[in-house]
Specification:
Substrate binds at residues 58, 63. GO terms for molecular function: 5-formyltetrahydrofolate cyclo-ligase activity; ATP binding; metal ion binding. The chain is of the alpha/beta class. The protein has one domain (4-203): Rossmann fold, CATH 3.40.50. 30% of the residues lie in helices and 20% in strands. The strands form 3 sheets. A 7-stranded mixed beta sheet has the order 3-2-1-6-9-10-11. A two-stranded antiparallel ribbon has the order 4-5. A two-stranded antiparallel ribbon has the order 7-8. α2 runs parallel beside α4 (67-75). The protein binds adenosine-5'-triphosphate and magnesium ion (MG). The site of magnesium ion has 4 residues, from loops.
Length: 205
C-alpha cells in the first residue's frame, strides 16, 4: 500500500506545478490589470480600510502584482511591511517596514526583500492584517503555498495560543485562476480567513 504522506506530497507538488505554470502565463498587461483591480477590492474592504499596519509581499513567480496596492496603502497613510527570511528561526518570517526608499536585496530564493534593519521590524501582534501570497486556494479557506512552510510556521495557531495571544488576521491574495477544488491539506497548514482576488472577496468562517 502506498505511504499516505508520499501520496499527499506528490499530489500537492503536482497542483503547485500546474497552478504556478498557469499564473506565469499571464501577460504583463493582465498582471497590471489584476493589480489595479485588486486596489478596487482593497479600497472597498472594511477591515483593510481600518488597518494601519498591513503586511503584504513583493510579487514573484507570477503572483498577483501588489505594487499598486502598496502605493494605495501609502497614499492612505498606512504602513506597509514585507516578509523577510528570519535570520535565526528555522523557516520563519520577520516583517519589516517598506518605504519608497527602503533598500532591497534578493534572498536565497531570488525574491526581493528589504535589507534587514532591526529598527524596522514589527512585532507580529502589531500587524492589523497579513496578506499572504499563495499558490492555490479552495473555497473552504485552505491554502497551498510554495512549499517552504514559512507562513505555516510563522502564524501557527499553537505558537500564539500557547502564549494566550490571538494570531494576526491572515488572508490570501491570488489570481482567480489559482482556485482549485478541494486542496489536499496537511495538519500543519494554516487556514486562511479570506481570499481577495482581482474580481472578488471570499470570506470563510
Ligand atoms: N508549524 C510547523 N512546524 C513545523 N514544521 C512545519 C510547520 N508548518 C509546516 N511545516 C513543515 O514545512 C514543510 C512545508 O509545508 P507546506 O508544504 O505546507 O508549505 P506551504 O504552506 O506550501 O509553504 P508556505 O507556508 O511557505 O507558503 C512541511 O514539510 C511541514 O512539515
Ligand atoms: Mg502549508
Amino acid at each position: 500500500m502506498p505511504d499516505i504522506t508520499h501520496v499527499l506530497t506528490t499530489n500537492r507538488s503536482q497542483i503547485r506545478q500546474q497552478i504556478r505554470q498557469r499564473r506565469q502565463q499571464l501577460s504583463t498587461l493582465q498582471q497590471q490589470q489584476a493589480g489595479h483591480d485588486l486596489v478596487r477590492q482593497f479600497s472597498q474592504h472594511i477591515q483593510v480600510q481600518a488597518a494601519q499596519h498591513i503586511a503584504i509581499y513583493l510579487h514573484n513567480d507570477g503572483e498577483l502584482d501588489t505594487q499598486a496596492v502598496i502605493d494605495w496603502c501609502w497614499q492612505q497613510g498606512k504602513q506597509v511591511y514585507i516578509p523577510i527570511l528570519h535570520p535565526f528561526s528555522h523557516k520563519q518570517l520577520l516583517f519589516t517596514r517598506l518605504t519608497a526608499t527602503t533598500p532591497l536585496v534578493k534572498n536565497k530564493y531570488g525574491i526581493s526583500e528589504p535589507r534587514l534593519n532591526v529598527t524596522n521590524v514589527i512585532p507580529y501582534l502589531e500587524l492589523d492584517l497579513v496578506c499572504s501570497p499563495l499558490v492555490a486556494f479552495d473555497l473552504a479557506g485552505n491554502r497551498l503555498g510554495m512549499g517552504g512552510g514559512y507562513y505555516d510556521r510563522t502564524f501557527s495557531q499553537h505558537q500564539f495560543v500557547r502564549n494566550g495571544q490571538q494570531p494576526p488576521y491572515v488572508l490570501g491574495l491570488a489570481h482567480d485562476c489559482q482556485q482549485h477544488a478541494n486542496l489536499p491539506i496537511a495538519p500543519w497548514d494554516m487556514p486562511i480567513k479570506e481570499i481577495i482576488t482581482p474580481s472578488r472577496t471570499l470570506q470563510f468562517s
